[in-house]
Amino acid sequence: MKLIILTLVILSNIFAALPAKSETVLEKIKRTGLLEVAMREDAIPFGYRDSNNNLQGLCLDFIQLLRGELKHKLNLQIISVKIYKSTLFNRFQLLENKTVDFECGPNSIRKNIPDGVSFSRPFFVTGTQFLVRSDNQKNFNFSSSLEGISIGVLRDTTTQELLRQKYPLATYQEFQGVTGRLRGIQSLRRNRIDAFASDGILLIGEAVILGLSLGKDYQLIPAIL
């Protein structure tokens, strides 16, 4: 199977001018002292809620680093941060509506995005993989059509689009919402689907949180070389 490499980026309009006052986002931050950002709560390890419902993740660390850089660049002693929750379905809209200055999450670079929204340089690369039960791994031949194989995917994602093009004869079960990936993996554990497909790093994150024994009872296939 040829892997499509997915790139983790920041969706950003931070240098774009705001139409009402011809003010860039940097100018707005300097004027207000407020950085408004969005991050996911369903994308371990980039953004998630821990067992105490506290927001955690690499994106949170990145936001703090960016805050420090902006304080230096804009010569401000204090920059407040307001964090919004982003999802697969509202991440572009939050930027398009100027609700936030940028969004951090596992976003695949694509062409069809709203005007005024752009991608930063990538800072993480992963690939599409399947989480499967070890006793079912032998049934996956990625050179075949995967006909008769039931695959869980998140709705309206590049992973779903890729797999439907590559394996149109497979059976797909769609999951959506903040808990979509979690519910998909739970369906795999209950033998309701044969595999759940997503970005490999996100599958690893969910597996760790759920206590799945990767390499023993469950496998990530194919390997990313």
UniProtKB/TrEMBL annotation:
One of its GO terms (biological process) is amino acid transport. Gene3D superfamilies: Periplasmic binding protein-like II (3.40.190.10). It comes from the Bacteria. SUPFAM superfamilies: Periplasmic binding protein-like II. It holds the Pfam family SBP_bac_3. GO terms for cellular component: extracellular region; outer membrane-bounded periplasmic space. Keywords: Signal, Transport. Residues 34-225 form the Solute-binding protein family 3/N-terminal domain. InterPro entries: Bact_solute-bind_prot3, Solute-binding_3/MltF_N. PANTHER family: ABC TRANSPORTER GLUTAMINE-BINDING PROTEIN GLNH, AMINO ACID ABC TRANSPORTER PERMEASE. Belongs to the bacterial solute-binding protein 3 family. This is Extracellular solute-binding protein family 3. It comes from Microcystis panniformis FACHB-1757.
